[in-house]
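Ops channel
N.P.: pipeline sanity check, posting one input/output pair.
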């Protein structure tokens, strides 16, 4: 099939590459000339395991090309995926500017029947807006081509995006037209090798499904963070509680890890957008408002624990972190990505800096992105996590990269000025660390307050 994917970010680049991998002819379009020039040379603008090899292979075999020429790409393709960003507007609603710009461009360049697919996360009713904008363009041009608008939200996870796309839990397709439904099924059939996980529905339900999924996951995280905070106050250990409840098949283990709050380019903005959508139709989504508020507070927990710890060291100063150095492990919003959008590390580090601390941070992939945010206000390392420990007053774990899971604790203790660990992801065994002489602060763990 001839496909064009407009927007070559995390979603568009992965989708386009995986469609090429399954034999389609794919042209990826972006307005960012530098990005497109790089991609033509095999330079991948994001960190996503396995993506680079796949881009290079499919480009070399002629199935995957990159361009800034949207008009030519649309003319050459039957299926046109819109995969541009939908950032939050000032009132929290999804900003559809980029999606509708692309829709307008498709309308002004299409020649013949086109399938237009919303892959970006967009509020219920967006497909209607896309349809209207495309039709306006066709009318303005005085031409009359048929087209269908499909909702096909994306569920991939950054860090595991290729696997998620190639072996999806499910593919949701919102479509009103039988012929287009068949084409979409054909397009996705190579990814349905074992069982058919294709879920066809009406367009509005498909649009809603994406928001409901992310809102549910965010709710589980905020719920578990509050359980953890209560555990801490009651002398219970949230890790044991998590196992105890996760073993119930109605609950399951996933997304029950307490921590430093959720971040990333999706959960915060999608929760906000759904609250806003509800408001627009006169419905108060109280639960989601609380989910958001709990998350905002949770991001402050690590710096508050650090402040509390150093307030009690006898200094009695009004700024207990002045003159202290905190080493931070993990900057990206989660492991296996360089994405810093809405990362809890931003809140943690900004607060530490505001309290007068010096901050040194390690991350295997996100340093380049972090530099855009913190500039030279902090010191960075992307090589060895031990590089930033010498003489630091404490170590805080903010992102659970695998390489932090089993570190050399003796080396950490030797390097730190005082052996204090704030484990924002509950990676370590509190009892073992205490035996080794560490002061250990986890999230919601018995006696580790
Ligand atoms: P991104 O910001 O990484 O990429 C968007 C790309 O679109 C950029 O490269 C930008 O230059 C390009 N763009 C903007 N306007 C354009 C135009 N007019 N023509 C061509 N290109 C244009 O975004 P992303 O993370 O890939 O997310 C895209 C959408 O997918 C969002 O709606 C997001 O909510 C959704 N989504 C993201 C993820 C994720 O994990 N990142 C997962 C599922 C769904």
């Amino acid at each position: 099939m001839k496909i064009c994917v407009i927007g070559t970010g995390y979603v568009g680049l992965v989708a386009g590459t995986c469609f090429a991998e399954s034999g389609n002819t794919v042209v990826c379009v972006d307005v960012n000339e530098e990005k497109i020039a790089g991609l033509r040379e095999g330079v991948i603008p994001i960190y996503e395991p396995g993506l680079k090899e796949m881009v290079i292979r499919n480009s070399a075999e002629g199935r995957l090309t990159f361009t800034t020429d949207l008009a030519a790409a649309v003319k050459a393709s039957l299926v046109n995926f819109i995969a541009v960003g939908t950032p939050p507007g000032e009132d929290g609603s999804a900003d559809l500017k980029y999606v509708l710009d692309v829709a307008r461009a498709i309308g002004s360049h299409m020649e013949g029947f086109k399938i237009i697919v919303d892959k970006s996360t967009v509020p219920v009713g967006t497909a209607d807006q896309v349809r209207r904008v495309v039709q306006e363009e066709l009318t303005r041009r005085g031409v009359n081509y048929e087209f269908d608008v499909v909702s096909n939200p994306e569920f991939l996870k950054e860090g595991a995006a290729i696997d998620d796309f190639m072996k999806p839990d499910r593919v949701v397709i919102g479509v009103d037209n039988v012929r287009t439904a068949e084409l979409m099924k054909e397009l996705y059939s190579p990814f349905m090798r074992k069982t058919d996980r294709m879920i066809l529905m009406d367009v509005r339900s498909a649009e809603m499904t994406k928001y409901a999924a992310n809102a549910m996951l965010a709710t589980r995280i905020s719920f578990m963070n509050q359980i953890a905070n209560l555990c801490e106050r009651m002398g219970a250990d949230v890790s044991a509680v998590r196992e105890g409840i996760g073993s119930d098949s109605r609950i399951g283990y996933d997304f029950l890890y307490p921590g430093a709050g959720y971040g990333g380019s999706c959960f915060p903005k999608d929760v906000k957008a759904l609250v806003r959508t509800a408001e627009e139709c006169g419905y108060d989504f109280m639960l989601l408002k609380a989910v958001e508020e709990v998350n905002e507070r949770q991001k402050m927990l690590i710096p508050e624990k650090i402040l509390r710890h150093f307030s009690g060291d006898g200094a009695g100063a009004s700024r207990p972190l002045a003159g202290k150095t905190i080493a931070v492990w993990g900057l990206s919003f989660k492991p296996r990505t360089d994405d810093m959008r809405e990362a809890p590390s931003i809140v943690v580090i900004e607060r530490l800096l505001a309290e007068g601390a010096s901050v040194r941070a390690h991350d295997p992939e996100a340093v380049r992105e972090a530099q855009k945010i913190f500039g030279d206000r902090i010191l960075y390392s992307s090589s060895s996590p031990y590089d930033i420990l010498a003489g630091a007053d404490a170590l805080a774990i903010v992102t659970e990269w695998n390489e932090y899971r089993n570190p050399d604790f003796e080396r950490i203790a030797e390097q730190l000025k005082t052996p204090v660990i704030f484990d924002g992801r509950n990676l370590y065994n509190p009892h073992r660390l205490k035996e080794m002489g560490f002061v250990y602060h986890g999230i919601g763990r018995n006696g580790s307050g």
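N.P.: looks fine end to end. The pocket of nicotinamide-adenine-dinucleotide is lined by residues 6-12, 29-32, 35, 83-86, 98, 101-102, 120-121, 154, 156, 158, 265-266 (CB under 6 Å).
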